[in-house]
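ok so for the tutorial part 2 we go from a plain amino acid sequence to predicted structure tokens. step 1 is just haveing the sequence, like this:
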Amino acid sequence: MPALISVLRDKDLSVRWRAANALESIGVEAIPDLLELLKDQPPTHRWEAGSAVSILGQIGTEAKPALIKALRSPNKNVQIGAADALGVIGPDGKDAVPALTGALQSPDKLLSKRAAEAIGRFGSEGEDAVPVLIRMVEKSDASVTKIAANALGDIGPSAKDAVPALIEAHKERISQWSAENALEKIRTCLQHHY
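step 2 — the prediction. this is what the tokens look like for a chain of 194 residues:
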């Protein structure tokens, strides 16, 4: 498998795609090597990191245990890649919500944002993260508030407790569009739900 991982760095795009497809078909056995690929990615190797995340996400629920563990890696790139891959898995990754909720509270803004995006992709299955997402809307800078508000909107009616924080964010013009969009999603879902 290390040979396939190294081919992800090939100059020929078609060669890289074939390697990515082969790793995806290998499945669970490729997970450790794919996580290793995320560790020290200089900017010139973003394609490989993106491929690793995509492949891990496509492997799906079988990759969840390794990805949840990777959220606790000391390497930020691995944590961010794991959050991204869990987001690709989507609602089937719902048992990752507690680990992603922990990542929401990271001092690393990029990791917090990626964890919020992943939780948003779980829809109503991300409900347990609502209290932390509310705190992010209330106490974060505009870029984090925007992502947290979007995640709350994607969670839908289960995020109704976020309405006061979203209204305040809207009033203060902090990520106004995101707050307005989240409020609209929650309102629409509540109307259809009840």
